[in-house]
Amino acid sequence: MEIQHPQEQPLKPGEVRVRVSYVGICGTDKHLYGGQPGSGEARIPVILGHEISGIVDSLGSEIHSDLKIGDRVAIDPNIPCGVCRFCREGRPQLCENNQAVGVTRNGGMAEYVHVPETNVYKIPDGLSLKAAAMAEPVSCVVHGLDELDIKPHDTALVIGDGFIGQIFTLLLAQQGLKKVAVSGHNPKKIALLKKIGADEVFNPEKEEHSERYDLVIECVGLPNTQEQALTFAARGGQVLMFGVSNPDDTFTIKSYPIFFNELTVKGAFINPHAMQDAIHLMVAGADVESLITHEMQLEDIPDLLAGRIPEKITKAVVRVN
Ligand SMILES: [Zn+2]
Ligand SMILES: [Zn+2]
């Protein structure tokens, strides 16, 4: 089966064509490329890429917003159906028929992408297109934080020093919590984590760590770090399971502390109602662009997705146009 290039297809009513500026490479893209599910099952053949910024290039019929050709935009990839039980309850992330740009329909690893106007967010002049491509991962983090009941005097532990762990650190520090700690294994990242607001960075594999935290956010998705997440929760603590795990993985939990300490364990999936907050937080000073470690070209994508790039990449974006 051949992929029909988006610029050759007519726009459907309510859709706009965006000339892609940047597309982020996400762990989920690697999962999808390897045949595992992302935010849904990929509908192959499909152009991947769900972290997209660009310029509005043409408008289909029946556009109701004030979008204009030439507008700089960030794209929300998720398209909930609007009519299932969860959509009607205001929980579109649980939609039973969710479509997603770059998963079930063609995405941003191409010169052009077609998206419903409802998924297009104008960005202010002060925000770069490179940063705007990060609106989607930031919006997922915003939703994760929305799932927690956060108080200023809480202490927080972020498990994982990768890109998502770094965004959580940045946004938690912006909220002025009593303490933000990060558990990670890469000593080269300690200086950066402290610069973006971590009060403490430790490696639980190397050092005994007895402190417990009101909020624990797991951003790795491996059984041992998920187990740690429960262990590090303080009395009354909340644990957010954010890392994407292998669907067949399991881990062991001690059930008594969940009862005795009244722990809350929550999942957070995708980014409902969070794109505008994500864009605003970046405009208001969350410097997510500085966390991007690699800027690549469209030709580099197969190597990136197959893990054939020898260097250690925390976060790569591809400059498309
Ligand atoms: Zn992603
Ligand atoms: Zn739905």
Quick recap of the structure?
The chain has 321 residues and is an alpha/beta fold.
Task: List its salient traits.
Quinone Oxidoreductase, Chain A, domain 1; globular; alpha/beta; 10 helices; 321 residues; 24% strand; binds zinc ion; 7-stranded mixed beta sheet; Rossmann fold
Report on this structure.
With 321 residues, the protein is α/β, with parallel strands linked by helices. It has helices spanning 27-33, 85-88, 129-132, 135-146, 163-174, 190-195, 223-231, 255-260, 275-283, 301-305; strands at residues 15-25, 51-59, 72-75, 78-79, 99-100, 112-116, 120-122, 155-159, 179-183, 200-202, 213-218, 233-241, 264-267, 294-297, 316-319. The strands form three sheets. Strands 1, 2, 3, 6, 7, 14 and 15 form a seven-stranded mixed beta sheet that branches. A six-stranded parallel beta sheet has the order 10-9-8-11-12-13, with helices on both faces. A two-stranded antiparallel sheet has the order 4-5. Helix 4 (135-146) crosses helix 5 and helix 4 (135-146) packs across helix 9. The chain is globular, with a radius of gyration of 20 Å. The mean pLDDT is 95. Bound molecules: zinc ion (2 copies). Residues 26, 28, 50-51, 136-137 line the site of one zinc ion.
